[in-house]
Structures are given as C-alpha cells and as structure tokens.
Amino acid sequence: MLTEQEVLQLCSDLESDRIERTISTKDTDKFCEAITAFSNDLPDHRKPGYLLIGVKDSGELSGLQIDDKFLASLGGIRSDGNIQPMPSLNIGKFSFPGGDVVVIEVFPSEMPPVRYKGRTLIRVGPRKATATESEERRLTEKRDSHARTFDARPCKDASLRDLALDLFKLTYLPNAVASEILEENHRDLDVQLASLRFYDPRTNCPTHAGIMLFGKNPLRFLPSAYIQFLHLDGDTLASDVLQEHRISGDLLSVLREMDLLVDSIVIEKPVEITTLREITVANYPKRALRELLMNAILHRDYESPSPIRFYQFSDRIEIQNPGGLYGDASKDNFPNVNAYRNPILAEAMRVLGYVNAYGRGVIVARSAAAKNGSPDLEFHFETSHTLVILRSRP
User: Fold this and answer.
1) What angle do CA 217, 136, 208 make, to 5 degrees?
2) How confident is the model at residue 144 (pLDDT cuts 50, 70, 90)?
3) Half-sphere CA count of 326, side-chain side, radius 13 A
4) d(CA 376, CA 373)
5) DSSP structural state of residue 202
6) What DSSP state is assigned to residue 249?
7) Burial class (CB in 10 A: 0-12, 13-18, 19+), 239
8) How far is Cα 244 from Cα 265, in angstroms, rounded to an integer?
9) Looking at residue 394, what DSSP letter applies?
10) Given the DSSP bridges, would you call strands 308-312 and 227-232 parallel, antiparallel or unpaired?
11) Taking a C-beta distance cutoff of 8 angstroms, is the pair 143, 110 a contact?
12) Distance between CA 222 and CA 216 in Å, rounded?
C-alpha cells in the first residue's frame, strides 16, 4: 500500500486520469463505477488507479472522519458480486490534520471487460463513461488468449456449433448485461460471447467456460466434468449400492438437477423442545449440502480426469472434489482466504443466482450445520483433491 507522502501527492495531482476524488461516504454506485473503470484500464496504463474518499476536487482534504464500519462496507464491494469479474484492490485509511482519507487502490483486470451491474465502464480522461461497442472490443482484445485460469483458455477443438446459443441469448445474457445496453446492442453473437469471456476471438473457438456453461455436450471436450452420485446402504464403499446417478450437461442443467437431488436426500422432521414448542430439523441441512456441492463445482480442477464424487453413506455424506486448495488459500487460512481456480465460472454462478456473495460458501454451510444441530463439517486437503464430510444429525 502507499505511504502517507504518496497519498498526499495523489491528492494534489489534478491531472492524472488514474485518480478520482470524492467527499461522499454514501454514494456506493460512484465507488463501484470508479473501481470498474480503473479495472478496465482502457488507456492501458498497466498501473493501479486510485479512488480517494475524503478529498475535494481541488485536492484539499474535506475533514472527513472515517470509522471501521465504513471501511468494512467498502471491503464488501469486492465480494458482493455486483462487479464482474471480481476486482483486485487494496483499501487503506490515512489520517492527516486536515481529515481522514480512504484510498482504494484498483489494479487492472487480467480478464476485461469488467462490468458493474451489467455495464462496462471506462475512464475517458478525468471522467467515467459507458464503453462503446468499439471500446468494449478493444478491452476484449486486450485479454491474453493464454489466460492463467483453465476456464478462460480456448477450447481449441470446439466451435460455435458446439454451443446452445439460445441458452446464452435467452437465459444468461439478460441477467449479465443491463437491459438498456442490450437494447442498443447490434453486435454479432461471437462478439457478445467474447465480451463475457465465453469465446476467444484470436483462436475463433469457445473458451472452456463457454463449453461448461452452454455446451451441447460438454463431456465431449471435458470428459470428467460431471458429478458421480452413489447412495450406499452402509458406512463403507463395500456396502450395497441403493442408487447410482451421474449429473452432467451444461452448468444450468447440472445446478437444477443437483437441487432436485438435494431435495430428495434431505428429510425434515419436528423435534419437541418443550411441551409447547418444537423445531424442524433435518438429517442433513439443505443449505449446507447445497453450498458444499456448489463449492465443489466452482473450485474443482477441470483438467483432472476425476469427476466430483458425491457419496451418501448411512451416517454421512462425502463430497470429494478434484484439486486441492488453490492460490493463496492454505490449510492455515481456510476458509477466510479464498482464491478462485475458475473465476469465470464463479461469475456465471453469481449471474445465474446460485451464488449471492463470493467467499462465503463454507461459512454459510458451517452456520447451517450448527443451526440444524449437525456435527461441524470436516475438511481434508490433499494435493490432488479436497474431501468434505457432512455427518448426519444424531
């Protein structure tokens, strides 16, 4: 993060298009729009942009006093899902005789275009603007076809013919892009797909994320991209199999089928607390089970030859997910630190309404288990896989 002297220099630099100042503490839209525009880095500065809160347009400090509650609310901007893909930023507070200054340091995105509530925002000199069609195409072209994450890379054996384009146009696009932008949109379908990171214009083929979300037959290109479910009549793999099922297809179909399977597993019953009061509990908390399965879909290693294994034993459920902890996440900081192996997939699940806020799946699952009276979740991390165990309620 910056030093105090560097912050004062930013306050006084009135010429840079990498700086925005505001004295407001309530205009969240303004904050998010600035973060989005800096993330897109249309001028290609390849340097951070800075939102300075508590500084007048003249560069003078406003005398603002910042509390921890306000800083916490700013931290939520990164993970609330309104900015897609998730921005990379630092937040710092600096106290001077003339008042407090909050600095939000925003790094250029590796996967532009970045959108806030479905709008692609850019910096045009000292002001923000909505990107035109040609400007958004420039942002798309900036993205390296050799992206770091697997879901962003081109699926070189596939073509547009392998995508269910109506699924993209009718189901996904209206939820991902603001309605007024869609009304003005006359771009070809491949350009629209590319702007959302589902198509690679350099190789003229869908990305792996495009195949996972809209593929007519994703298993043709990703043979292990399915969930293997087993219901066993005992507590070991040697027990008789009561039910066996494979869940596969485009992501939306998988998520819907997964919800139906969870509904069939969860059995609720009333439990008497006092003579006049009872509560409803379940063998497995539905919210926890659902969050864990979505987590497995989101964080799995799609280059692994193994599927997600979802096993229901007589006393527990085990979910084994290809791929260990990723990025900055480790056994010591889990689940407080989260890194996304498949960021485009994470964005899509947020757009489709299956993720409300990033980085909270395990926390929500643990809370649901505790509320249901279930034992705490057990996590086992290996290099090749992650295993989570949800035991049935006593």
Assistant:
1) 20
2) low
3) 20
4) 9
5) T
6) S
7) middle
8) 13
9) -
10) parallel
11) yes
12) 12
